[in-house]
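Figure 6 in text form: structure in, sequence out.
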């Protein structure tokens, strides 16, 4: 490991300051209150810390897939942390056209990102016969993917038998978020959109977030198993608490809170992190 989370965040903040598109994507460096920025930063760096822990267990020349990589910040983070690994990021977002500009920034800072590639690609277009990954990273991706069962089977087929999938998701049972999403889309959790570049209609989950229990059920049906020791809940306190406590103090308080309070973690924590692995030899194939 050659790059700390603090250093990565400082450089990313510098990049955000000169990249308008990136500033609207990563909102923790907006010109808003310091407490709100700290609130957003805490969520971001906790996800990075969780991902880093998972990366430390990988073989030296690991193959990593950042599925639904968006603007590629986590792909860059992984490629910098593991220079001997091969990191592949796939996305169907318009951000894809802006990724070369991002890579130029990091290269100008002296970092070698030759181990990182991006592709404008549907999840289902990644062929298991061509790609076998040691780790699949899915951050805020799975609740957008449909049909989800088919996707989970496909991801399993793209993973090495001993590999793992690292998942960072919104907590679908969070009461506030549930209300916000319902106001946005009602009961319509699944829809379609037209992809101009591929000239096809693609089904998508419309903020179709799920609770940990729901994810456990879905994954088990597709021969995945969540490691119970890997589960982590993040973000409980509102921004105003950052006026009284430092970012690190807030994180420490939250990490002491969720393991011992079922109601709080289930209904009031915003994010869930977990890892899943293949729980048995799978003979499941896609139709």
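Output sequence:
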């Amino acid at each position: 490991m050659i790059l700390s989370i603090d250093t990565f965040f400082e450089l990313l903040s510098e990049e955000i300051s000169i990249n308008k598109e990136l500033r609207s994507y990563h909102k923790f460096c907006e010109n808003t209150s310091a407490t709100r920025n700290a609130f957003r930063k805490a969520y971001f760096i906790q996800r990075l810390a969780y991902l880093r822990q998972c990366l430390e267990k990988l073989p030296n020349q690991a193959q990593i897939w950042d599925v639904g990589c968006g603007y590629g910040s986590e792909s860059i983070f992984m490629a910098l942390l593991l220079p001997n690994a091969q990191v592949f990021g796939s996305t169907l977002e318009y951000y894809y056209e802006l990724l070369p500009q991002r890579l130029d920034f990091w290269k100008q800072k002296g970092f070698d990102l030759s181990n990182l590639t991006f592709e404008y690609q549907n999840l289902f277009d990644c062929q298991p016969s061509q790609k076998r990954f040691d780790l699949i990273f899915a951050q805020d991706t799975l609740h957008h993917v449909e049909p989800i069962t088919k996707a989970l089977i496909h991801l399993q087929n793209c993973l090495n038998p001993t590999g793992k999938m690292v998942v960072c998701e919104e907590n679908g049972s969070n009461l506030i978020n549930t209300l916000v999403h319902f106001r946005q889309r009602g009961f319509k959790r699944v829809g379609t959109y037209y992809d101009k570049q591929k000239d096809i209609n693609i089904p998508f989950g419309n903020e179709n977030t799920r609770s940990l229990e729901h994810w456990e059920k879905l994954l088990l049906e597709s021969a995945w198993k969540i490691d119970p020791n890997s589960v982590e809940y993040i973000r409980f306190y509102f921004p105003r608490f950052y006026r009284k406590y430092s970012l690190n103090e807030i994180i420490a308080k939250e990490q002491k809170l969720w393991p011992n309070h079922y109601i709080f973690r289930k209904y009031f924590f915003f994010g869930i992190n977990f890892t899943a692995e293949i729980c048995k030899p799978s003979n499941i194939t896609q139709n």
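Caption detail: Confidence is low (pLDDT under 50) at residues 282-287.
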